[in-house]
Design a protein that fits this description.
Blueprint lengths: L1 E8 L4 H10 L4 E5 L13 E4 L5 H10 E8 L5 H6 L1 H22 L5 E8 L25 H16 L7 E8 L1 E3 L12 H10 L4 E3 L9 E3 H13 L7 E3 L7 H11 L5 E3 L3 H8 L8 H7 L7 H21 L1
The structure holds nicotinamide-adenine-dinucleotide and serine.
């Protein structure tokens, strides 16, 4: 039995890869349906290629490892979830239920922390009629399978935390769209933000699938990872789920930021009605004052600093290396 282990599901995803790089190797168990990027070798104790729907696999892991913390990141993101709701329900809801059962069994005799990345998709607005920042307890009327699943799993986690020994410590973080310079997401609906930047750096034209006036909250990946770690180390939390955010540009403002650094970038707007409708149901801004107050959250990167000090240097290096 290996003790004091952190389990990351969905470890090969965007957040998983970034988290692996900061957590270090010796006590981290990484799990993903797909093989792990070879560049991550050395950042984990063991990698298991497997499915969170495989309960026998989870039971076996429970016998081999004493898990103290679970970052449950494996999921189907929103655009893909809407195109395959059956798969989305299985992975996002039944998969999370499996992990919660696993966490509950592990927490029989010791505290186990369960970190769950939720989303702005838990909110449901009619065509963004609310322009002010939306707080955690407002507008909880998700319009998508993905968002409804996230909200349900937040509630499920809070319910599981009261079961058994009471030692399962469930904490949810509602992320806005995330932008990483190192990885490019797939299957999400906030993807136009990172895609616009990555395509410009790679010298490829980009057709943005939302209107120029579309506004959403975003966070860069280093801030998202800091938020997860800060939430994990917080003591006595009055809430089960917290918003975190930084900047809320329109798609046109994002294009202007991209053009500042890549003046020859070609970005056109060709809205996709289904993806536009999803984004229009999500808040333009969210209120993260509870996270600021309860556990000292604040982002390090606003829009200007994100582009100047993180996104542009790192994304330029990435495509320079690829072309060289
Ligand atoms: P991602 O799509 O990059 O990664 C998800 C990972 O889960 C993939 O590596 C995939 O192979 C794995 N996976 C999928 N089904 C699986 C299964 N059945 N068993 C095991 N592994 C499986 O997503 P991400 O951006 O890293 O997001 C991680 C979490 O954060 C998700 O829960 C997502 O909903 C949430 N989130 C992400 C964002 C964002 O903008 N990236 C915003 C809000 C919330
Ligand atoms: N970025 C995610 C998505 O678009 C939102 O949770 O699916």
């Amino acid at each position: 039995m290996q003790e004091d282990i952190t389990l990351i599901t969905g470890a090969n995803g965007e957040i998983g890869q970034a988290l692996l790089r900061v957590l270090g190797a010796d006590r981290v168990l990484a799990l993903d349906l797909n093989p792990l990027d070879p560049a991550l070798a050395g950042y984990y104790l063991e990698f298991i290629q497997g499915d969170i729907l495989d309960r026998a696999l989870l039971e076996q892991l429970g016998r081999e490892f004493e898990i103290r913390r679970i970052y449950h990141l494996a999921a189907i993101l929103s655009t893909k979830a809407e195109s395959d709701p059956h798969l989305a329900h299985k992975v996002n809801v039944e998969g999370t239920m499996n992990l919660l059962n696993f966490g509950l069994a592990q927490s029989e005799h010791r505290r186990v922390q369960f970190l769950f990345p939720s989303s702005i998709a838990v909110y449901g607005l009619e065509a963004k009629e609310v322009q002010g920042p939306v707080g955690e307890d407002e507008r909880l009327m998700p319009t998508t399978v993905y968002g409804a699943g996230k909200l349900y799993c937040e509630r499920l986690g809070q319910h599981f935390a009261k079961q058994g020994s009471g030692l399962l410590d469930f904490r949810a973080l509602r992320f806005p769209g995330l932008i990483s310079a190192e990885t490019l997401s797939a299957g999400g609906t906030t993807d136009y933000g990172p895609e616009m930047l990555h395509f410009a750096a790679a010298g490829r034209p980009y057709r943005c699938f939302v209107r120029p006036d579309t506004r959403l909250p975003f966070l860069v990946m280093p801030d998202a990872i800091r938020a997860l770690q800060k939430l994990a180390s917080a003591t006595s939390l009055p809430r089960g789920a917290y918003n975190v955010t930084s900047f809320s540009p329109s798609a046109e403002e994002l294009r202007q930021s991209v053009l500042e650094y890549f003046p020859s970038a070609e970005v056109s707007f060709e809205p996709d009605p289904d993806r536009q409708a999803m984004v229009d149901s999500w808040p333009a801004r969210i209120d993260d004052s509870a996270a600021r107050r309860d556990w000292g959250w604040s982002p390090e990167y606003d829009l200007q600093r994100a582009f100047a000090e993180y996104l542009v240097p790192a994304v330029s290096d990435r495509y320079l290396e690829e072309s060289g």
